[in-house]
């Protein structure tokens, strides 16, 4: 059956990212030497990106169920119910390696891919978020990467027509050679109209939809499963080029044929393109698939079967159609000017057969391609617990007000307006709380239901203690949703780590997963979708472990959400949650004292829940007038952000005697919020918190146009805001650093 | 008011526009496909909404300006019918020659999504009778190529004929460099055709029409149009 192809050599096997053992496994599985096309298919299915071979055993420990979960991990995206027959479909995915090589297209196609995952399931995308990490601002490549990635995210999302409503941006030298671009998409569907990848029925047409296939992105997924070294630039041809216009057409056409009842199964062509999508549809449905590559719409001549099977050209879909609806579906696609071709059919053989120029170029057992992929129990060493920083031996070089002025202009704390103003965040007319707050708040359809969305992770905590850091990422996402008044429902996780073949990196991964699992269980906040990105290393140096968490919460009435801006003068400012003054791994310790060290703040999940439940109740009852979660930079930075957002200052009391003042104002203890209430509500709120076992303390009252600390000169908001807003535009203009 | 919203492939604010029209006119607009050749019978107002028609490939609005439906839009305009183009719609109207000038890349070379202040220059047009002359409204922009450009002669003509309908200003209604979000000539955000029946506007009034969402400054444009047709009837 097999036409002549080059002899499979050990070098060729290695070039496909397969180990000699893995190649042996292929030989055993199929009982003969694979063809070149088959070798390509195996390399696509068995690389880390598609097979999760290093992470699978650990991912299984994550909680994925709750009464409101409709679809957990394993499909294109996770699905949860938000009541009233409505479902939210969401997922986050990385596009780190491509974005480092070609930032605009890498980031753009990252957005395109995740949007496709969402509308493949029948949902109309209603929001995008992202989480970005770049190297040291002083690194020569950083500015170029920030500019390109931000423009790429905007370029795709703005044109596609989805609001980009939130995210985070951080900098650290450990991302110098490996930036992170994690994109999240959120869609809305009716609960009983969700579409899945599982094919059913024998002899049904398999239809190729969308853009034509070219040679772009061949081996993209394999690239994403290897470290960077010298010669990374030469990998540019493996990055795909995005076409948001085609994707917008694909969205409209897909939703139209779904509504017309034409679709049995649908799968987007993402990583490893035609290979992964066809195998997944067949394997999930216990069916075989035969593809005829001569029918695949191509944009270049002379493409081989191998190239077609591994192309990662964007904006493509594969569907199994109801045979009687084929003509109707085709008419809809033609109306939108998109390619539509029957390229194969489902069979009862459970074989994956690929035909090209009249010959069979691949004939493989379809279930085994996925199920028999290698699974590794990679050895790991636990990250040693760092010592607690003793607050007594920290020297404080600056006064509180001076430290705040310095910190507010730090790359990690300054305003990210320069970034999010390049994203259309108001299109669709449902963005109630725009970027810059704790979580974005969207109206759902015509309301009053609302959604709250956030992405969070604190990589420096994860580096110091992966377990606590994993917990913290989940807790902070949960807290940010609570801080706007939403009920947190579920998360998507995007786990970015270094090379898992190194035991210490694997240890970070395992530790972080345990932390995430524990926090998700304690907070009833299951993981419904996600993505693992390993091998984020350049020349042997790994990124900070970065398990990004995307959280989704629901509000019964979006107009009753809270925002962080102070609302009026002479309101009482309350600190909710316990403050020990934890300075280990704090931004203050790192950037003001020059010490990046210590254990990160531990997360008490029971306290997290108690405190958050109280805050949410205060918001729902209209008692809390402004709310902000306390995270990077501690209490003082949180207060400054609330003041700057409103133009209303605050008169603050002295720190309690038991806590060193710098530690009180800049410590990053967890499970804390700043809440303002009207003076008349203060006593009752304090009593209520105490009764609920929630630590509460008056820290001052809103007043004037400055932040005033006892014994220090007032910090004028105008000056503070100039510093807060100034750094990033000045940096991007090349005026600083 | 019978409104028709033209849908070109790649347009993405047609739902926002339809929602605003439905809310304020009390009647849903007809959505008209770009490949159609006629507008619905009795159309009062044609709207070209925002987005990225045909991906904005070639030049913003250039391909859409040659779509089959544009002949009918041109006829409608020539007969004095009202046409509103917002954002990409404005770009299409310029490319179609229904409005003078062109929209260049923003002066800062970046896409900008931000609320801006506009001064309504006159209230005696069908598009602005819902406002007072000199009134300052706040509406969002979301564009990468909104920098209005025309020759000095054309600009002088537009000014002399009172065809600059909206201008970027600060919150107090003063023209200022900082407030001119995209570097437009004469801070022009919206211009009228010679017969005052075609308006091109860069920002998005359709996104600020609901009290519950925080701002209603965009309502005046649609409410004024509705009133115009009520008075005319």
Features of the shown structure:
heterodimer; A: about 725 residues; alpha+beta; seven-stranded mixed beta sheet; 28 strands; about 35% helix; about 25% strand; globular; B: about 230 residues; alpha/beta; Rossmann fold; nine-stranded mixed beta sheet; two-stranded antiparallel sheet; 5 helices
Report on the architecture of this protein.
- The complex is a heterodimer of chains A (737) and B (233).
- Chain A is built from 25 helices and 28 strands.
- With 737 residues, chain A is α+β, with helices and mostly antiparallel strands.
- In chain A, the strands form five sheets. In chain A, strands 8-10-7-11-9-12-13 form a seven-stranded mixed sheet. A seven-stranded mixed sheet of chain A has the order 23-25-22-26-24-27-28, with helices on both faces. Chain A has a six-stranded mixed sheet with strand order 1-2-3-6-4-5.
- In chain A, α7 packs parallel to α8 and α7 runs parallel beside α10.
- With 233 residues, chain B is α/β, with parallel strands linked by helices.
- In chain B, strands 2-1-3-4-11-10-9-6-7 form a nine-stranded mixed sheet, sandwiched between helices.
- Chain A binds chain B through residues 151, 154-155, 158-161, 243-246, 248-249, 336-337, 420-430, 432, 443, 447, 559, and chain B through 9-10, 12-13, 15-16, 19-20, 51-52, 54-57, 110-114, 140, 142, 144, 204, 206-207, 210, 212-214.
């Amino acid at each position: 059956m097999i036409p002549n192809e080059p002899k499979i050599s050990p070098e060729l096997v290695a070039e496909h990212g397969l180990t000699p053992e893995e190649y042996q496994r292929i030989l055993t599985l199929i009982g003969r030497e694979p063809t070149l096309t088959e070798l390509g298919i195996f390399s696509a299915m068995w690389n880390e990106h598609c097979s999760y071979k290093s992470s699978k055993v650990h991912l299984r420990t994550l909680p994925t169920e709750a009464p409101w979960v409709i679809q957990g991990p394993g499909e294109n995206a996770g699905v949860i119910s938000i009541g009233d027959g409505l479902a939210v479909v969401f997922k986050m995915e990385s596009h780190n390696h491509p974005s480092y090589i070609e930032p605009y297209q890498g980031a753009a196609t990252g957005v395109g891919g995740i949007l496709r995952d969402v509308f493949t399931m029948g949902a109309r995308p209603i929001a995008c978020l992202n989480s970005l990490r770049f190297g040291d601002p002083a690194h020569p490549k950083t500015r170029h990467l920030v500019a390109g990635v931000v423009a790429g995210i905007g370029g795709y999302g703005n044109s596609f027509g989805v609001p980009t409503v939130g995210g985070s941006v951080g900098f650290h030298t450990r991302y110098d050679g490996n930036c992170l671009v994690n994109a999240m998409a959120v869609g809305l569907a009716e609960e009983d109209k969700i579409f899945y990848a599982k094919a059913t029925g024998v002899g049904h047409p398999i239809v190729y939809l969308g853009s034509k296939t070219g040679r772009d992105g061949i081996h993209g997924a394999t690239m994403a499963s290897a470290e960077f070294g010298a010669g990374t630039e030469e990998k540019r041809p493996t990055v795909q080029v995005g076409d948001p216009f085609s994707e917008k057409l694909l969205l409209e056409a897909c939703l139209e044929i779904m509504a017309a009842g034409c679709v049995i199964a649908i799968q987007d062509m993402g990583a490893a393109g035609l290979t992964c999508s066809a195998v997944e549809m067949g394997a999930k449905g216990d069916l075989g698939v035969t593809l005829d590559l001569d029918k695949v719409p191509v944009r270049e001549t002379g493409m081989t079967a191998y190239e077609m099977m591994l192309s990662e050209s964007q904006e493509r879909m594969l569907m199994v159609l109801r045979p009687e609806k084929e003509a109707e579906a085709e008419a809809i696609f033609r109306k939108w000017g998109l390619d539509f071709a029957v390229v194969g059919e489902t069979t009862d053989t459970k074989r994956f057969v690929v035909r090209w120029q009249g010959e069979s170029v691949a004939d493989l057992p379809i279930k085994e391609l996925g199920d028999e992929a290698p699974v590794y129990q990679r050895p790991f060493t636990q990250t040693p617990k760092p010592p607690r920083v003793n607050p007594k031996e920290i020297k404080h070089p600056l006064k509180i007000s001076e430290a705040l002025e310095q910190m507010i202009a730090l790359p990690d704390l300054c305003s990210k307006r320069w970034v999010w103003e390049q994203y259309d965040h108001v299109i669709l007319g449902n963005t109630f709380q725009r970027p810059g707050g704790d979580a974005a708040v969207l109206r759902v359809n015509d309301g009053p239901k609302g959604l709250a969305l956030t992405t969070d992770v604190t990589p420096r905590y994860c580096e110091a203690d992966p377990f606590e850091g994993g917990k913290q990422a989940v807790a902070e996402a949960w807290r940010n949703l609570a801080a706007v008044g939403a009920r947190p429902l579920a998360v998507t996780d995007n786990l970015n780590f270094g090379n898992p073949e190194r035991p210490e990196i694997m240890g970070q991964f395992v530790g972080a997963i345990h932390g995430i699992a524990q926090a998700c269980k304690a907070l009833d906040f299951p993981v419904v979708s996600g993505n693992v990105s390993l091998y984020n290393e350049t020349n042997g140096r790994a990124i900070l472990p970065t398990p990004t968490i995307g959280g989704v919460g629901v509000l019964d009435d979006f107009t009753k959400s809270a925002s962080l801006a102070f609302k009026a003068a002479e309101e009482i400012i309350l600190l909710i949650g316990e403050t020990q003054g934890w300075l280990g791994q704090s931004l203050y310790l790192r950037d003001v004292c020059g010490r990046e060290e210590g254990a990160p703040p531990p997360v008490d999940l029971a306290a997290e829940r108690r405190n958050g439940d109280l805050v949410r109740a205060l918001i729902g009852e209209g008692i809390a007038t402004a709310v902000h979660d306390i995270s990077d930079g501690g209490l003082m930075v949180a207060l400054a952000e609330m003041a700057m957002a409103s133009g209303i200052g605050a008169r603050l009391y002295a720190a309690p005697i038991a806590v060193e003042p710098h530690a009180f104002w800049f410590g990053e203890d967890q499970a804390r919020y700043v809440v303002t209430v009207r003076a008349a509500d203060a006593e009752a709120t304090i009593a209520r918190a105490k009764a609920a076992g929630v630590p509460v303390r008056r820290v001052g009252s809103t007043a004037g146009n400055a932040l005033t600390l006892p014994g220090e000169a007032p910090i004028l908001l105008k000056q503070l805001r100039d510093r807060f807003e100034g750094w990033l535009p000045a940096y991007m203009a090349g005026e600083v650093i | 008011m019978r409104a028709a919203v033209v849908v070109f492939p790649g347009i993405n604010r047609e739902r926002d526009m339809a929602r605003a029209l439905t809310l304020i006119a009390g009647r849903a607009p007809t959505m008209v496909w770009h490949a159609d050749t006629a507008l619905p019978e009795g159309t009062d107002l044609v709207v070209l909404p925002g987005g990225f028609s045909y991906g904005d490939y070639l030049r913003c609005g250039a391909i859409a300006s040659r779509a089959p439906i544009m002949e009918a839009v041109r006829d409608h305009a020539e007969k004095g019918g009202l046409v509103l183009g917002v954002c990409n719609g404005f770009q299409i109207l310029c490319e179609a020659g229904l409005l003078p000038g062109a929209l260049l890349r923003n002066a800062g070379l970046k896409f900008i999504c931000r609320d801006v202040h506009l001064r309504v220059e006159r209230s005696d047009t069908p598009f602005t009778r819902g406002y007072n002359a000199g009134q300052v409204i706040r509406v969002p922009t979301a564009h990468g190529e909104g920098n209005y450009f025309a020759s000095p002669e054309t600009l002088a003509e537009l000014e002399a004929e009172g065809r600059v309908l909206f201008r970027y200003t600060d919150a107090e209604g003063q023209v200022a460099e900082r407030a001119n979000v995209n570097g437009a000539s004469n801070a022009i955000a919206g211009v009228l055709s010679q017969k005052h029946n075609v308006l091109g506007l860069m920002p998005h009034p359709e996104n600020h029409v609901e009290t519950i969402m925080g701002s209603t400054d965009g309502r005046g444009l649609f409410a004024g149009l509705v009133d115009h047709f009520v008075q005319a009837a």
